[in-house]
Design a protein that fits this description.
Layout (H helix, E strand, L loop, with lengths): L4 H6 L3 H6 L1 H4 L8 H4 L12 H9 L7 E5 L2 E4 L3 E2 L4 E2 L3 E3 L4 E2 L4 E2 L3 E3 L4 E4 L2 E7 L4 E4 L2 E7 L4 E2 L4 E2 L10 E4 L2 E4 L7 E3 L4 E2 L4 E2 L3 E3 L4 E2 L4 E2 L2 E2 L3 E5 L2 E4 L2
């Protein structure tokens, strides 16, 4: 069964629920669980990521994590290639791979068993466990849920061209974020196709897929397929 996008937006309350941290993320898959639970919407957590990492870092056991640089904690069973650049504050979780020429600019909380791929750039992000950003991705001012995956070349755009504050556009509703930099909020198990651009303030509900080479903006309901702005269907 296919439900038109307009009909989805008219289901009162459905999209509002989908926007919340509670309904987008399984908090058992991130070290940021206690922090995120303080907020209603995920973008509200962006301002405090650096302080959060510094707070968590002090509690990490020395037998499991080493500190190659100031305010950088890397799990001893993680793999960080010598050509990767990692700046603090940053935490790299257990079993994670940070591959060739990755650029971690700081304020990056990277979970367990993640892949930060070749030439991928991270800045002010929370990546839940098992997130993959494996090839030529830019992820800034964003939160990616458990097992979210961004295809090669897909990016989060985090600043509007007019440099005004980012507004979350949910149908006819507009939610002010109060921030000039907001990237994308991806729910658990979201799949983003190759070479897609997620415009500032994009929110994608859990278990949704985005077609390759898409230009996405606004709120995409959970468990849906984004083909283009006029064709967003609920999965059967």
């Amino acid at each position: 069964m296919t439900i038109p996008f307009v009909a989805i937006m008219c289901l009162k309350g459905m999209v509002i629920i989908m926007l919340t941290i509670k309904d987008m993320y399984d908090l058992s898959h991130t070290k940021a669980a206690d922090y995120l639970s303080r907020f209603t919407y995920p973008w509200e957590a962006l301002a405090g990521i650096s302080d959060l990492i510094l707070e968590i870092g002090k509690t990490l056991p020395e037998e499991e994590y080493y500190k190659p640089a100031e305010d950088v904690w890397i799990a001893k069973d993680a793999t960080v290639f010598v050509t990767a650049y990692v700046h603090g504050p940053c935490i790299i979780g257990h079993g994670t791979e940070v591959r060739q020429c990755a650029f971690v600019r700081g304020s990056a909380l990277v979970g367990d068993n993640c892949v930060v791929g070749n030439s991928t750039e991270l800045k002010n992000v929370i990546l839940f466990d098992n997130v993959q950003v494996p090839h030529y991705n830019y992820v800034g001012d964003s939160i990616l849920g458990y097992k979210a995956h961004m295809g090669a070349g897909s990016i989060t755009s985090n600043v509007k061209s007019d440099k005004l504050n980012v507004v979350i556009k949910n149908g006819d509703e507009q939610i002010e974020t109060g921030r000039k930099k907001v990237g994308a909020m991806l729910g658990d198990r979201v799949e983003v196709g190759c070479n897609s651009v997620l415009n500032p303030g994009t929110v994608i509900g859990r278990d949704s897929n985005v077609y390759p080479v898409s230009c996405v903006r606004g709120v995409i309901p959970e468990n849906s397929i984004y083909k283009d702005k006029d064709h967003i269907v609920i999965k059967k």
